[in-house]
Amino acid sequence: MAATWPAAPGAVAPQLLGVLWFVSVTTGPWGAAAIAATGGEETLKCEDLKLGQYICKDPKINDATQEPVNCTNYTAHVPCFPAPNITCKDFGGNETHFTGNEVGFLKPISCRNVNGYSYKVAVALSLFLGWLGADRFYLGYPALGLLKFCTVGFCGIGSLIDFILISMQIVGPSDGSSYIIDYYGTRLTRLSITNETFRKTQLYP
């Protein structure tokens, strides 16, 4: 019986490269959409696409409120476009092959509840007329405003404290709404740790 020798390294290399290429394609970020397009599995919903497989438009901003248009219950929606050659189910449940120009789904984004109180006006009143309590009257705190007026801003100390608190957006309107601040301007975002949040340990080199 004739002995069989192992295949030469030159013959094994192309086969190995072919296997690695197949694995990288099917497990890469575009793999799920590619398999779905060929009918290998159930088509994904467009909102389940991964980052890089779609792009969303910037929200349309209301000039009066400086918040996204149609902001309801602290949420607005922006249209998102799946990348070319992606096949997924749009918000109507229809399986569509996208070219990059069609809206695939509406992505929810957070927005704030505003009720006409301007941050710039509040800071200006606190800086120039804080000793008369104008800032507190404007924000809806008439009792504190009257007290500051009668005490000349607590001899100036209360006016200084209020100016710092309003500038840092710690003191806001009495109705619980947010200040009107330019959407792309400087906004203070408070981060808090609760049972629903997670703090990732910093890894130093």
From TrEMBL:
Q: Transmembrane region positions?
A: 117-134, 146-166
BP terms from Gene Ontology:
apoptotic signaling pathway
Q: Name one GO cellular component term.
A: membrane
Where is it located?
Answer: Membrane
Protein name per the record: TM2 domain-containing protein 1
Membrane-protein topology: Multi-pass membrane protein
Q: Does the keyword Signal apply?
A: yes
What is the native source organism of this protein?
Callorhinus ursinus (Northern fur seal)
Domain of life of the native organism: Eukaryota
TM2 domain location? 116-164
- Single annotated GO MF: amyloid-beta binding
Keyword terms, alphabetized:
Glycoprotein, Membrane, Signal, Transmembrane, Transmembrane helix
Family from the record:
Belongs to the TM2 family.
Report the principal subcellular site: membrane
